[in-house]
């Protein structure tokens, strides 16, 4: 059996690193002993059965769990070598560098243009706003579909377009990392493929971590895949842990752990 320390990719430049990371909700230890490296300009997918802590870990990376009063974490999590949970770290600044796209598209009830411009403006963007809006929408592969209706509501477009608008909004503030929590869960197959193509392009500029329940999606988009699992504790609690992380083709074709093999071949989860 591999040790946890051996589960992380080592060859690439590392952007996010966790060492012996434990997450509690109240006194419930939801995620235990995570050692994981997230490499630069790659897509890392988190897969695993429900409740294994994929979203919990993802939300740790941009301090989003801070908003949950019963959350607390132990261990070390660094972003480019800096302690993400250090006393002098401003979570708002963290979220500027490490953006997030959620499962359900959540555009602001504002125009398509303002969906991009608003965040950029409150983040102090001083450049040409028209240019930023166009560039962000182009990067999100949405420009051609919305260029003639920038003043229309961002909520009056299809779900797939809304999700690409949310991605455009996330990248408009020029983050370093984009976290995606099941970004295609509410999309039709064609929109899903568009978002997957987009993820491929975005990794040229950004580091991406994606939670997905869709194993085909992980195999299509991810360079690395981390398989999380749950185990029953003696007192009957379901505790999440990182079973294995490796190059995606290894996880899908030649995993080291029996549970990974069973999960990727659809035998549980
Ligand atoms: N806000 C919260 N308060 C208390 N417990 C929570 C909270 N959020 C998550 N949990 C618990 O933490 C564990 C991990 O949940 P999490 O949502 O991270 O798992 P997941 O792998 O993303 O699951 P899914 O695939 O179903 O979305 C679960 O036992 C869950 O019930």
Automatic annotation (TrEMBL):
<dbReference type="GO" id="GO:0016887">
    <property type="term" value="F:ATP hydrolysis activity"/>
</dbReference>
<dbReference type="GO" id="GO:0016020">
    <property type="term" value="C:membrane"/>
</dbReference>
<dbReference type="InterPro" id="IPR017871">
    <property type="entry name" value="ABC_transporter-like_CS"/>
</dbReference>
<dbReference type="InterPro" id="IPR027417">
    <property type="entry name" value="P-loop_NTPase"/>
</dbReference>
<keyword id="KW-0547">Nucleotide-binding</keyword>
<dbReference type="InterPro" id="IPR003593">
    <property type="entry name" value="AAA+_ATPase"/>
</dbReference>
<keyword id="KW-0067">ATP-binding</keyword>
<dbReference type="InterPro" id="IPR003439">
    <property type="entry name" value="ABC_transporter-like_ATP-bd"/>
</dbReference>
<dbReference type="GO" id="GO:0005315">
    <property type="term" value="F:phosphate transmembrane transporter activity"/>
</dbReference>
<dbReference type="InterPro" id="IPR005670">
    <property type="entry name" value="PstB-like"/>
</dbReference>
<keyword id="KW-0813">Transport</keyword>
<dbReference type="Pfam" id="PF00005">
    <property type="entry name" value="ABC_tran"/>
</dbReference>
<protein>
    <submittedName>
        <fullName>Phosphate ABC transporter ATP-binding protein</fullName>
    </submittedName>
</protein>
<dbReference type="GO" id="GO:0035435">
    <property type="term" value="P:phosphate ion transmembrane transport"/>
</dbReference>
<feature type="domain" description="ABC transporter">
    <location>
        <begin position="16"/>
        <end position="255"/>
    </location>
</feature>
<dbReference type="GO" id="GO:0005524">
    <property type="term" value="F:ATP binding"/>
</dbReference>
